[in-house]
Amino acid sequence: VQLQASGGGLVQTGGSLRLSCAASGRIFGINAMGWYRQAPGKQRELVAVITSGGSTNYANSVKGRFTISRDVAQTTVYLQMNGLKSEDTGVYYCNIARWSGMDYWGKGTLVTVSS
Questions:
Q1: What is the pLDDT of residue 53?
Q2: Pairing status of strand 109-114 against strand 3-6
Q3: According to the model, what pLDDT value does residue 115 have?
Q4: What does each of the 115 residues of the chain score in pLDDT, given as a tens digit?
Q5: Are the C-beta atoms of 22 and 56 separated by less than 8 Å?
Q6: What angle do CA 65, 47, 3 make, to 5 degrees?
Q7: I need a surface site. Which of 30, 46, 66, 107 has the fewest CB within 10 A?
Q8: 20-59 burial string, b = 16+ CB within 10 Å, else e?
Q9: What is the rounded CA–CA span in Å between residue 46 and residue 108?
């Protein structure tokens, strides 16, 4: 199974983007689906996660601006990003974690926020 992320691009400060990440096949035993990002020169960090039960958690820096969601079949995860700031610039990666401990990662989509 492969994850394909899309929706990144260049946007001005205050703008919005919606990222999508679709799995090429059904994944069973999902614990959580999430988005991570890596800014230039920094380590990859968690942005948002949604559990199989629907609970969500966000990095403090994006609370109130970003919303994570998924489809019922848990084959696609979305990240709605509003009020974008320059510090949101980075490569965004989607992740699906299984209860078994196995992880799937997308290749990443670049988000650039210009002032």
A1: 95
A2: unpaired
A3: 86
A4: 999 999 999 999 999 999 999 999 999 999 999 999 999 999 999 999 999 999 999 999 999 999 999 998 899 999 999 999 999 999 999 999 999 999 999 999 999 999 8
A5: no
A6: 115
A7: 107
A8: bbbbeeebeebbbbbbbbeeeeeebeebbbbeeeeeeebe
A9: 13
Contacts of 84 (CB under 8 A, 6+ apart): 11, 12, 13, 14, 15, 16, 17, 65, 111, 113
What does each C-alpha distance from 105 to 4, 5, 37, 52, 78 come to in angstroms?
A: 9, 9, 12, 17, 14
Q: For residue 66, give Cα distances in angstroms to 35, 87, 90, 103.
A: 11, 14, 15, 23
Q: From residue 1, give the alpha-carbon distance in Å to each of 36, 39, 52, 69, 109.
A: 19, 26, 18, 20, 18
Answer yes or no: are the C-beta atoms of 84 and 26 closer than 8 Å.
no
**What are residue 100's phi and psi, to 5 degrees?**
-70, -15
What is the rounded distance in angstroms from the CA atom of residue 84 to the CA atom of residue 97? 27
Measured CA to CA, the distance from residue 63 to residue 20 in angstroms comes to: 19
